[in-house]
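Consider a protein example.
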Amino acid sequence: MHTNIKDLKTNDSFTDFYFLKNYTLGNKKNGDAFFRVELSDNTGTCNGICWENPDSFDVNVKSIGTIVKVKGVMNEYNGSSQMRVFNIRNARPEDAEFYDTGDIVSCAPIDKDEFKQAVESMLGSIADDEYRQVAQTIYNEIEADFLTIPAGKSVHHSFRNGLLMHTTNMMKLSLCIAEQYENVIDRDLLLTATFLHDVAKIQEFELSNLELVSDYSCEGQLLGHLYMGAVKVRDACLKLGVDDHKRLMLEHLILSHHGEPENGAVVMPKCAEAEALHIIDLLDSRLEIFSEEYEALEVGQFSQKKNWALDRKIYRNK
């Protein structure tokens, strides 16, 4: 039986398989090398430290994004749990019978089929024929990858089925906003662009054999998913003969959904639907960050460190 990270208490010893999220080298005061690791399974994440010579193990920075076997004990450091690692090695083919990947690799806490049906139902509710055709055409093209890949490498929804979860949540929010602000929001434009806003992450990411983001593709690093997404939408619109203005609006919403140029937006949102999409994206991504931080916190507790994405400590109220 797998030893879940969330169940490990101080002084608990363990030997099991975990996912290596990060690996960094350091030096002791005497100059000797040591290394830190960040390990995870589908119940949580924990930092670890090994004071032994890094050259004694086959695990290194190239092992990030793979499964490793770890022997250690759970300690406490500065009020937070920390693994003291005594031994660590890369998982081998013959180890496969001793672990279940589903116990180790994080997956979205959703019913995949239910969320898939929700997306398809919302796409079917788009009344504008041209917007619906664009969305449906691209959905048919990317369906398998869309339902599986993470929505990010580390910041939010960085687990399997993460893009499906993130997009579905956002589409539901877009419907609420469109209904509340129907005097300024084109429902079909917002809903279509919400579905399309991150589809080019499929091109932007390189995935490991565990279906997690291991790196960014060359195309992803040079162009980014906003530009690539706008190109994908433009190509689909031109092929389908979509009205030029509708095509322009879809492109604008995709290119501006990060809000500010310093956050990666090509242009700032210049219409109500674009502003709404930016806010919806920000809301869902940030609340997911809180949700993931809460997993390590008790009610009434602050996080020990600042969340680097939000640049603040997190307090769990509920």
About this structure: Strands lie at 13-27, 33-41, 44-50, 67-77, 80-90, 205-207, 213-216. The chain is about 40% helix and 20% strand. The radius of gyration is 22 Å. The mean pLDDT is 93.
